Amino acid sequence: MKKYEQLAKHIEQQILSHHYHQGEKLPSITQLSKEHHCSKATVIKCYEKLIEQHLIYVKSQSGYYVADGFLKTASSHERFTLDTGNPIVSATSLIDAKHCLSIAIEQYSESSLNISLQGVESLRHILPDFLSSLGIYAQEDSIYLIQGVTQMLSFLSSLEFDNHHQYILIEEPTYSYYVQFLKSMNIPVLTIQRDENGINLKELQQLFSKYDIKFFYTVPRNHNPLGTTLNTYTRQKIAELALKYNVYIIEDDYFAHCSYSPRYLPISYYMEGQNCIYLTSFSKIIPYIRIGICVIPTHFKTLFEKLIHQSYYYSYQLPSLISQATLESYLRSSLYQKQIKILQDQLSKDYQIIEKITQQWDSQIAYPLYDQSGYYLSLKINQTIQLDILQTNLLAQNIKIARNERCFYHQENFNHTLRLSLARIHPHDLEEALNLIYQTLLQYLIKNSAYND
Predict the structure, then answer these.
(1) Residues near 349 by Cβ (< 8 Å), separated by ≥ 6?
(2) Does position 145 have pLDDT exceeding 60, yes or no?
(3) CATH number of the domain encompassing residue 407
(4) Higher-confidence residue: 421 or 151?
(5) How far apart are CA 149 and CA 284, in angstroms?
(6) Which residues touch 45 (CB under 8 Å, ≥6 apart)?
(7) 125 and 83, same structural domain?
(8) Which of 312, 332, 352 is the last residue of a domain?
């Protein structure tokens, strides 16, 4: 490690341990040069590196200051938190958050909770342009503000759709909370395998033609837990088959805003809004508000609103007024795009580290599944390794991971994978965690081989 990198890591640790606080001025270039017995050029390179990591910023004619850094770890035992996709609140600039919240409170100070079931009108008015940047071309009347994807999934699962079909088709693996919900409600479920190559389209057509499937729930990109993305041909074919067999698609594009897949278009685009319900969320980008968007087909509106009215007495779908107002403040300013850019830059660095580290691994022991976009990736682990023992050994080193059994509706189809999330880990800690994971795998195999001998 070069001198400027050592110095940068030292200052970074001081920031993360709160030796230097948010907004505090850092030592001058001359002062650091003397303290660490290095050249001023070394200190400048050190500070440039920290600026790139969004940990500090420079004020003209003033000096270097601590930013409210994109990722913070609360304590050393949480450095290797890889088991959750929920970022901490301070993943969003708290200065920006306070600014948008202040505007929201002032702007809506005369409002009441008696608002449309679709959401605040002024926010919905700007959403068609926002969605068009994602390849979703919807009229304002088809856009609903929702508390989150999970809540809307449970709501949609209980509805009788106008195709009068009964089965719900899901990918396997898929979003674990939805799997558990479907099991708890005893809803008729069919599954189709999803792996690094996507799904079998011939099998999908057979399922669509043979069974009366109400809807197919799919996470085309940033798949949870695999981290993969369905290719263009597959997305187009899903749209074509769904229209042919009168199957609805529930398209969960929860991380759409941060994806940078070139020329990506959602399934909804290929269906021209027909028979496709599009869901996305803002909670991964602005974690202190719980809010998402649901886009429905025009012909579905009457049924949808009738059932929303009926559900009002036991389940409130609409996000809070302050969440809607805060999101509007973000979208009308440049702060939302600023947050997206920070997150994309961070993820880009993370995936560079993942590629650098894992390309040295023996693929017979472990190999990663990912698409260099989004928080999630999975590790395919050698079948001889017991994952419960591996998880215990990793936890002893403060490495928290998630096992993917819970993402399978049928446990016998489990593909022996672990899920890692990048939502709460710093790049330096990610590199160390990946090395420790692989070392732990090697130690397990060596120990197991010696025991068998």
Answers:
(1) 53, 427
(2) yes
(3) 3.90.1150.10
(4) 421
(5) 12
(6) 4
(7) no
(8) 332
Q: Which pLDDT band holds residue 77 (cuts at 50, 70, 90)?
A: low
Verify that 401 and 432 share a domain, yes or no.
Answer: yes
> Is residue 190 in a domain?
yes
pLDDT digits (tens, 9 = 90+) for 45-55: 999 888 877 67
For residue 340, what are the domain limits? 76-90+336-452
Residue type, 255: F
- The answer to whether residue 71 sits within a structural domain is no
The answer to whether 208 and 402 are in contact (CB under 8 A) is no
Strand pairing class (167-172; 399-400) = unpaired
b/e code 401-425 from CB counts within 10 Å (16+ = b) = bbbbbbbbbeeeebbebbbbbbbbb
| Nearest Cα residue to 240 out of 262, 265, 210, 272 | 272
Q: Which two tokens stand for residue 364?
A: 């017979």
CATH assignment of the domain containing 272: 3.40.640.10
Specify the pairing of strand 56-59 against strand 248-252. unpaired
Burial class (CB in 10 A: 0-12, 13-18, 19+), 439: exposed
Same domain, 123 and 247: yes
Rg (CA), the chain: 24
Verify cis geometry, omega within 30 degrees of 0, for the bond prior to 87: no
- Crossing angle of helices 335-358 and 321-332, in 10° steps, is 80
Report d(CA 100, CA 336) in Å as an integer.
10
